[in-house]
Specification:
The chain is of the alpha+beta class. It is built from 12 helices and 4 strands; from the N terminus they run H-H-H-H-H-H-H-H-H-H-E-E-E-H-E-H. Helices cover about 65% and strands about 10% of the residues. Helix 9 runs antiparallel to helix 10 and helix 9 packs parallel to helix 12. About 30% of the residues are buried. It has 2 domains: about 240 residues, no CATH class; about 60 residues, no CATH class. The two termini are about 40 Å apart.
Length: about 325
């Protein structure tokens, strides 16, 4: 009779396996091998975007700035555009900013589909749970490995984008609330992590690949759309007033969110100035008859970028935490 002796795991390893909280290198390697295509594609995209940023910050920015300096005088910007064949630097930064802004949709589709949804639908997740991998360890590896990859890669792009943007603001016509908004801070990382958690939750709720994928993309898009629509309300605005028609001046780089007239001391947005479009004396008399006593503009100065950005990041991280907690609760309920 042959006796097979299995080696006993060390005490820390045995404790981790018994509790189900430890994640072995073998589990991590399995996740990487199963999703190596997605990992390779994401790596190529991130490396390509990083290479484009380096080229934009060195070659494109240098060429455009040299062309602008060669023009001199009036029409400097138009002359520089003609020489360089257009705003190559600005267009490139805009495209990279769009990638950082909307890449979370691809992450949501991956999480809801190939990462979690497909394994729940095909039953491979249940098979893994019977092969010595506890459900909790399986989920920890499934979410932890992509979260680490997304955090490091997106965070690296954010640092590079922010550095190049800060050094070349003179070549950009849009300000901080344009395509540069997500790429300059941790909000871009929070978006992809939130998409990962929402995708996993969609997969556990629907347990079918395509419906989970569609639901994850739809929910994360709706969340991003809502935050973009109400972003101006995440921090109190600054209001300036004047008695000059057309509204008060606002600082360079500010994001104007509203302007209008003060009618009997109350702000009226988008006031119809055309109703008094006539001669100077007639215009003043018309405005007096309407009760216009001044003009106002509400805006966010550039110093509000970080407060707004961090509030939005906090909202996304809160949604991420809630979605992750819901996934763990569903897992425990279905494997109890």
């Amino acid at each position: 009779m042959t006796v097979v002796v299995h080696p006993r795991p060390s005490a820390p390893q045995a404790s981790a396996e018994a509790s189900g909280h430890g994640v072995s290198w073998g589990t991590v390697r399995t996740v990487l091998r199963l999703h190596r295509t997605a990992l390779v594609v994401w790596t190529l995209v991130v490396v390509g975007a990083g290479g484009c940023l380096v080229w934009l910050g060195t070659v494109a920015a240098g060429d455009e700035r040299a062309a602008l300096e060669a023009c001199g005088g009036a029409g400097r910007r138009l002359c520089g555009m003609t020489i360089t064949g257009g705003r190559g630097f600005e267009n490139g930064m805009s495209l990279i900013g769009l990638f950082l802004r909307y890449s979370f949709l691809a992450v949501a589709a991956f999480a809801g589909g190939a990462l979690i949804g497909r394994e729940l639908e095909n039953g491979t997740a249940h098979l893994a749970w019977t092969q010595g991998v506890t459900p909790l360890r399986w989920l920890t590896a499934k979410l932890g490995v992509p979260a680490l990859v997304l955090t490091t890669s997106t965070g690296g792009l954010v640092l590079l984008y922010s550095w190049i943007w800060a050094d070349n603001q003179d070549l950009l016509s849009y300000q901080w609330m344009g395509d540069a908004y997500p790429g300059r801070g941790p909000g871009a990382v929070a978006y992809v992590l939130c998409a990962l958690a929402v995708g996993a939750l969609s997969a556990f709720l629907l347990r079918r690949t395509l419906p989970a994928l569609a639901a994850a993309v739809g929910v994360t898009w709706a969340l991003g759309f809502a935050l973009a629509q109400f972003r101006e309300d995440l921090w109190p605005t600054v209001t300036s007033t004047s008695k000059t028609i057309g509204g008060p001046s606002i600082p360079d780089g500010a994001w104007q969110v509203e302007n209008g007239a003060l009618v009997h001391g109350r702000p009226v947005a988008n006031f119809a100035y055309w109703r008094c479009d006539s001669g100077a004396a007639e215009t003043r008399r018309c405005l007096d008859d309407l009760g216009v006593t001044g003009y106002y503009a509400s805006y966010h100065p550039e110093s509000h970028y970080w407060p707004i950005h961090l509030v939005e990041t906090g909202i996304l991280l809160a949604v991420t935490a809630l979605a992750t907690a819901a996934v763990h609760w569903l897992l425990r309920r279905r494997t109890a």
